[in-house]
Design brief:
TIM Barrel; disordered C terminus; alpha/beta; binds zinc ion; five-stranded parallel β-sheet
Length: 265
């Protein structure tokens, strides 16, 4: 499988910051999957998926709805947080946790609310990535590149060539609106900008000159827009991985006959 998918973790970004990212995609005729953290996110033709925050500290959902914390077990807490996030994007069939948090109990919770794929494992710049079964009826579409990881690990020189986009395998690219907006060049610059997280004008003043996440993102979009085969939505990767058949008990099931992941079952 060789497919490229652009994904954006919305991360409670200001609407103006998010609109900047959407506009850069739209002007090039590219589509992306947006993992949504909060209500009211309008990304037009793009796909919306879920980006729940399962951490207890610094959690805006739990601050707004403290009654969620009154549940008596961890799984019930996961269920409440996942359901509350699904209410923001009822059509979503995909999920990526904030901080890529995962534990096995989340498999059943996710399936129960209609999630069909996750994009939660991170295998940076690994060739030949494929969808992976993580439970009957649920697959993971691994992340190939993440902008924040690139900053914290100084993994590349922020040049498109370093991403080795011509190698085989699934390539799920993960970007963050604020990192793009400020053209982040270092973790220190990003952390400094966080005090103005919801103030686009101040973020603009914090925008770095020279090569950064924004220049990488825009050059990557230019490259992908010039190719005859365009990036796919993760929903489409899920659909092309499996033939969906009706389940006797209702809800989708997986027929692995058309699956590149069948050998992993
Ligand atoms: Zn996140």
């Amino acid at each position: 499988m060789t497919q490229i998918a652009i994904t954006i973790d919305v991360e409670w970004a200001h609407p103006e910051v998010l609109a900047y990212v959407v506009n850069e995609l739209d002007t090039r005729g590219l589509r992306a999957t947006f993992f949504c953290t909060h209500a009211g996110i309008d990304v037009g033709q793009h796909e919306r998926a879920l980006h729940p925050n399962y951490r207890r500290q610094g959690n805006s959902l739990l601050r707004e709805r403290p009654e969620i914390l009154s549940v008596d077990c961890e799984l019930a807490l996961y269920e409440q947080i996942t359901s509350a996030t699904k209410a923001f994007c009822p059509e979503a069939i995909g999920l990526r946790s904030h901080h890529l948090f995962w534990e096995t109990g989340l498999t059943a919770v996710s399936k129960r609310i209609g999630i069909r794929y996750t994009s939660n494992s991170f295998q940076p710049l690994i060739r030949d990535l494929k969808p992976t079964m993580i439970g009957r009826g649920l697959i993971d579409l691994p992340i190939y590149y993440m902008d924040h990881w690139d900053l914290t690990d100084s993994a590349t020189s922020l040049q498109v060539a370093d991403l080795r986009m011509d190698t085989a395998g699934l390539k799920v690219l993960d970007f963050h609106p604020n990192l793009i907006y400020i053209n982040a060049r270092s973790e220190a610059q990003y952390l400094e900008s966080k005090q103005h997280y919801h103030e686009p004008e101040k973020l603009l003043r914090n925008r770095a000159y020279g090569r950064g996440i924004q220049t990488l993102f825009l050059e990557l979009l230019d490259l992908l827009a010039a190719r005859p085969v365009k990036p796919v939505l993760l929903r489409e990767t899920y659909e092309s991985t499996f033939a969906i058949t009706p389940h006797a008990g209702g809800g989708p099931n997986c027929d692995f006959t058309n699956s590149s992941a069948s050998s992993l079952v």
